[in-house]
Specification:
By secondary structure, the chain is mainly α. The protein has helices at about 5-20, 35-60, 65-85, 95-115, 135-155, 170-205, 215-245; strands spanning about 25-30, 35. The protein has one domain (about 65-245).
């Protein structure tokens, strides 16, 4: 008798929790949608940096690469090697996807440490690295999930779903749960590390504003690059796993 009211109250409680916000945020109303303006602004800046850098470096490609062209060719080779290592011989079509993820996350993470976001005053809230917001990391993790499902279905057809009952049908619930936890782990790992890094720097600057925060900032740059590499490596590994069917 009381099962239905309890279920309704539980769903209402979850809905109330979903409306909880931490800090202040600036929102824009676009059509019938309310969007997080801070994330959009910083994401556009990151995209502009990437597009501008690539345009300047390779607008006049040379047979003997210049410094800028040589750097981007090295980055491309690095991404291709990473994709080939994790995906296998069919890595070619996935290089743009893995490269986009790696470069966007890398520049986003570094922007939080190198760009003076805090001096830009907003009516509400403040600017920070795009990956400092859970909405961005989830938005990066979800296409990764779609990508490895697409890769598996393209390679194996409906036979792809046979992996859920391997090595035994008893593991079906666990194998299904694994696919739901992959985007969660990707998004929360990236979000948690970037947020923690920026909080540590802010606290140290407020306590010891002279010298101590500098080594921590350099350490933050290193860990930010590592987080971008981890995200791209795991994304490629998930795609390779779905295509080959190994764990």
């Amino acid at each position: 008798m009381n099962v239905l009211p309890c279920s309704i109250n539980t769903l209402k409680g979850l809905y109330d929790i979903s409306g909880v916000e931490v800090g202040q945020h600036l929102y824009w109303q676009i059509g019938g949608f309310q969007v997080h303006a801070q994330v959009l602004i910083t994401s556009w800046v990151v995209i502009a940096i990437l597009l501008g850098s690539v345009t300047i470096a390779v607008r006049n490609p040379q047979t003997i690469p210049t410094n800028g062209q040589n750097f981007f060719e090295y980055v491309l080779e690095f991404i291709r090697d990473l994709s080939k290592t994790q995906i296998g011989e069919d890595y070619g079509p996935w290089v743009p996807f893995i490269g986009t993820m790696f470069l966007f996350i890398f520049v986003s993470n570094w922007s939080g440490a190198l760009l003076p976001w805090k001096i830009i005053q907003l009516p509400h809230g403040e600017l920070a690295a795009p990956t400092n917001d859970i909405n961005t990391t989830v938005a990066l993790a979800l296409p990764t999930s779609v990508a490895y499902f697409y890769a598996g279905l393209t390679k194996k057809g409906l036979g792809y779903f046979g992996k859920y009952i391997q090595p035994t049908p008893i593991l079906l619930p666990i194998n299904i749960l694994e696919d739901f936890t992959k985007p969660l782990s990707l998004s929360f790992r990236l979000f948690g590390n970037i947020l923690a890094d920026e909080l540590v720097v802010v606290v140290l600057v407020s306590l010891v504003p002279s010298v101590v925060p500098i080594p921590v900032m350099f350490l933050g740059l290193f860990t930010s690059g590592i987080q971008a590499l981890i995200f791209a490596t795991l994304a490629a590994a998930y795609i390779g796993e779905s295509m080959e069917g190994h764990h």
